Amino acid sequence: MSETSLPSVIALSPVEQPPDATVRLPGSKSITNRALLCAALADGESTLSGVLFADDTRAMLGAIAALGAQVTVDEAAATVTVRGADPRLASAPVSVFANQSGTTARFLLPALALRPARGVLDGDAQLRARPFGPLVEALRTLGARVEEPAEAGRLPLAVTGPVHGGRVPLPGHLSSQFLSGLLMAGPLMRDGLAVELTSPLVSVPYVTMTAAVMASFGVQADGLGVAPGRYRAAEYAIEPDASAASYFLAAAAITGGRITVSGLGAGSLQGDVRFADVLERMGARVSRTADGITVTGGGPLRGVDVDMADISDTAQTLAAVAVHADGPTRVRGIGFIREKETDRLAAVVTELRRAGIDAEEHEDGFTVRPGRPAPTRFDTYGDHRMAMSLSLLSLRSPGIEIDNPRCVAKTYPGFFADLSRVTARA
Ligand SMILES: O=C(O)C1=C[C@@H](OP(=O)(O)O)[C@@H](O)[C@H](O)C1
Ligand SMILES: C=C(OP(=O)(O)O)C(=O)O
């Protein structure tokens, strides 16, 4: 059941017995999109394995082709070969459509600014509503011409380089993707790059991930800056997606079952593996090996008070777990997720309340109190993480339906099929 065969509303039924399963999830969206871009900027031919094929990574595949990379895809084998091209030698205008993908858009704009020709970047309505202002200002400071034909700081944007690089102030409180995008383009800037953060950085582990992927392609970055240099082609194996893993680990905690996600070992590059730590604090048993994470539920789940600024893609997952705890859960530090695919704080609280759950929105997060979800058809607001998180409420409660389940195609087209398989439902 890929997203193309999903109905417009999906009805989910409770599990008959607690699952006991091992699952290997599709590749990490974040690592796939970094590796594709580094490979596209590298000298020579790279081979990526474990590649995620979903709307967000297809957007990046299209974008790197526009940058001049030669791309060969073997979807069945989950591999992509990329022959890089130096964007500084480009002369033709290009146009890139990032669809709904924040990573594609925020990583591409600085790469387009390396080109001495005009590059237009656009996305769908959801992405047009998300902020780009800090990146526009930074690229202007670094020497690019940026046109904002619609609204200031919003897509569509047109950028003409080349940027010369150097020192640049950048706010960190809205998104880490601006910094990651600048860093990845940084080595190809004449003067390299030195970023001075003007506000605290959110989603910090993603910047560590950026530096790690860059290092695999031969460039050392320190998280705030990088010297001029060239990427080298590499053979690169992409880990499974840790944000996607949160739904399965949560399912084990909610049902009292046992689920192992393989391929996400102790050395994972993804901060979202730390979602398992939150489940552990709630009372689930967690074991971590070199090759995977296992969560075993069973006992009561305690409510927690937790800052999720580092792992905010798993906040909605936690909201679903919190419904099944024995005390309130307060999530902090994530005001910035109001600017993701939707206002995720408002969306998750609104939908839980529609199911009769006592939930409250705060400026920087939410509180969820335990309860029994009433039969509800949930709205997803076109947000894949709303669809995947709210579907967890069906594990122990009848009558749960998800409207527009196809939005999972953004990062995980096979989500509902995998969830059914792992939780042993028809
Ligand atoms: O760099 C990345 O790969 C990502 C960074 C995070 O975004 P923000 O930095 O905007 O919080 C995260 O939510 C997104 O899904 C992926
Ligand atoms: C916020 C997300 O994606 P992006 O910012 O890459 O669009 C996400 O995957 O939850």
The first-level CATH class of the largest domain is given as Alpha Beta
Q: Which value, in Å, is the CA radius of gyration?
A: 21 Å
Number of domains: 2
Shape: globular
Residues in helix, %: 25-40%
Q: Helical element count? A: 13
User: Structural class, from helix and strand content?
Assistant: alpha/beta
Please name the fourth-level CATH homologous superfamily of the largest domain: Enolpyruvate transferase domain
Largest sheet: 4 strands, mixed
Low-confidence stretches: none
Name of the CATH architecture of the largest domain:
Alpha-beta prism
Q: Strands of the largest sheet, in order across it? A: 2-16-18-17
User: What is the beta-strand fraction?
Assistant: 15-25%
This entry's quaternary arrangement is: single chain
Enzyme class: transferase
GO biological process, one term: chorismate biosynthetic process
Keywords: Amino-acid biosynthesis, Aromatic amino acid biosynthesis, Cytoplasm, Transferase
Pathway: Metabolic intermediate biosynthesis; chorismate biosynthesis; chorismate from D-erythrose 4-phosphate and phosphoenolpyruvate: step 6/7
